[in-house]
Amino acid sequence: MKKLIVFFVIIILALFAGGVFGKSVKTEDAKLVSDIAKGAVSVTPDTRSQPVPLSKPSELSIPKLGIQSPIEYVGNDALGNMDVPKNDMHVAWYEPGFHPGDTGNAVIAGHFDRKDGGPAVFYQLETLEKGDEIVLTDENANMLRFSVVEKDTYSAANFPIATVFGPSQKRYLNLITCEGVFDPKAKLYSDRLVVRAELKE
Fold it and tell me: Which fold has domain 2-44+55-199?
């Protein structure tokens, strides 16, 4: 419980710092984060058959897109925001958050393009559709399979932190990348694409 509270305190700080996930959050999301930190909201775990536990995930595979990427582990950057992958063709798991396969929203981010304008690892992420498969593998060759259930685009200024990073009764994996219009001065895209996938039975 202590780890969960610390996690949401970090997320709240990130909201005020701005950056990758925008400079504000919806009122209902802010209240949810506050209630969780106070212990006023409880989440009933998914009690269906338990998946094979993964050690730290090491590889992300999306067969439809031909993606087979190593997974970097990231926390928060100097401003308190989720850090990004160091390699444009790698993805990054937000390690302080939920573990993939556990009840809750695990988050993996990837770049949309490179500094030279060429395509990066998640360049075609928007082409995923409901039912497409996402596979995570650990260093012991254990695998978890997820199925895409929805995708949404949010403006960076109104990114729903609690919805994407917070607790859930289901086992979600959320993939995030940039979308929209690029601001060359701020060096940021206007929107964020989120592809949500649920763990298969």
Answer: Sortase; Chain: A; (2.40.260)
- β-pairing verdict for 67-74 and 91-94: parallel
Q: Give residue-wise pLDDT tens across range 157-197.
A: 899 999 999 999 999 999 999 999 988 888 889 999 999 99
> Please, are residues 42 and 35 in contact by the beta-carbon 8 Å criterion?
no
107 DSSP β-pair partners: 174
Give domain limits for the chain: 2-44+55-199
> pTM here?
0.77
Q: How far is CA 10 from the centre of its chain?
A: 15
Q: What is the DSSP string of 151-171?
A: EEEEEGGG--HHHHHS--SSE
Are 170 and 186 in contact by the 8 Å Cβ rule? The answer is no
Please give the helix or strand (H or E) that residue 4 lies within, else none: helix 2-17
Q: By the 8 A CB rule, do 181 and 130 touch?
A: no
